[in-house]
Amino acid sequence: MKKNILAGDQKKRAKQRSVTQKPSLAVDLWRFKILWGCVAAFFMILIARAFYVQVLDHQFLQKKADAMILRTDTLKATRGVISDRNGVPLAISTPMVNLWMDPKEYFEAVAEHREIEQKLKENPTSARLKRQLARTNFDLNALADAIGEDREKLIKLVSDKKTSRYIILKRQLPPPTAKVILSRKFQSVYPENDFKRYYPQAQPNAQIIGLTNRNGRGVEGLEMAWNKLLTGEDGKMRVMRDRRGNRIKDVELIKPETPGQNMTLSIDSRLQYILYRELTAAGIAQNARSATAVAVDVKTGEILAMTSWPSFNPNDPNGLTNKDAMRNRAAIDMFEPGSTMKPISMLAALESGKWQVNNTVNTNPGSMMIGNHRISDTHNYGVLDMRGIIVKSSNVGIAKIALSLPYSTMPTFFKRLGYGQRTAVHFPGEAAGLILPSKLWNVSEVATMSYGYSLNATALQVAQAYATVANNGVAHPLTLKKLDKVPAGEQLIDPKITQEVLSMMEGVIQPGGTATRAAIPGYRVAGKTGTARKLVNGRYSTTEYRALFAGIAPVSNPRIAMVVVVENPVTKYGGLAAAPVFSKVMQETLRLLNVPLDRALDLPKLSPAD
Q1: Tens-digit pLDDT profile for residues 177-217
Q2: Are 182 and 101 within 8 A, CB to CB?
Q3: Which residues contact 159 (CB under 8 A, 6 or more apart)?
Q4: Structurally, how many domains does the chain consist of?
Q5: CA atoms within 13 A on the CB side of 97
Q6: Is 290 a catalytic residue?
Q7: Are 469 and 560 in contact (CB under 8 A)?
Q8: Residue 261 DSSP symbol
Q9: 222-239 residue pLDDT tens
Q10: Based on the domain organization, do 207 and 273 belong to the same domain?
């Protein structure tokens, strides 16, 4: 029994030894093959994947790499230059630099920098950590000082935009200034090319040319009207940049920029300056609210000068608060033109055939009643011929002539000469003026229309009408663009009639007329004064006036028509407030344009002793 038990234990131990004994060589070889098969398969998969990515789908990695180092930059188009008729630049764009910041990148870099600094404290000898330290300037106070901004304001701006990728720090810095700031390597601060509009002759031209906003878009004047032509079209360039955004290489020109179109004005900057200078002097001397003038080449319709006082400086962003000074009054402001309408009314009367140059009108006793409205002259001029009505500026005389004609005659003729409609200039905000509708053409309105009340006009419209008279009745559309050739005109009035009225207007400048101060040595001048009461709260004021003078020179071969308007002068009469401005400006204009004299110069009288 005992032997059987021992034999059973021995069998168990033998069986257990068989389980743990070393495997055979065949088993080891089988395991080796399985292991190397797995390794080979793994490498085959890697090779296949690499082949797929680098050969079959190589653009994937290329796009990933490009996304990290390639950027598409905008090539800003240069805004076109605005020049005067002689090529003098009046509006140009100069290269500038905007500085911008990436706040998100800045705060990430700050956090990374602090983390490396902390590790350096634990391992101060680590060369690897020292190499990882950023070599940029994180000091926002120093950045604020460099760009000239308030420290607290800049820190708040950056802190409030922590997740933003783009904020403007400073706009339109001169490139040398921007270069100095960027050399201080402020963290996440980058340059951006820009342009700044500059106006070399600011005040005289500001109300015509206007200005652009900080994005380079025209918002006033011709900058706005011609914005599409001046702007051009931006281009695109693919460039390679490093981590800090520095431009390393231009890779590909995607689209070239198209510069804005250059524009040449009909304006002569020399005449523009002279006109502004004299308007300024007259405005100050007369303690006026404003003074405006327009000068037109009657042969072409080109506006040679047009400006107003007071004006503004578009180069000074802080000087754009006076919106009244920014108005181009010659095109925008409407007013009752007063007695400057009398020559136009006389043209209509002579054209009707009912009136001839040698006809007379009895203006006694110097006033007349129409309904409950009294029309008066400054004096009782008695019986006046057609010339006398213009020379003495008789309201009674011209009103009687107007009332002798069908009521539609005067307003219809005015419309033919451009009153009551915008000119061809199409200046932004240009007023159309106002002629009452035909249902209101009654006896009172027609009478007052004849001497410049009951209708509204702009200085441009008055200048256009006088230019037509000066050009033998041929009208040319007014323009602010320099013309390469004289456009075809439209014959609106019989030349014989215009010559007759021009002769009448010449008498206004001669002794006994109302505008002797408009005379110019060596030139024959024709014109008409105007003194118009201003409407205040629906009634004509007894203290506020508008003084006007519209004139033409030289009479023998007219070249320039000019209109001068002075608002609220101390001396209310057009012959005293506006005519002297005309004389000074027209004299220098004719000289600069080399217009020949058409009468003898007035020589000083010599005493017998001399």
Answers
A1: 999 999 998 988 988 888 889 999 999 999 999 999 888 89
A2: no
A3: none
A4: 2
A5: 16
A6: no
A7: no
A8: P
A9: 999 999 999 988 888 777
A10: no
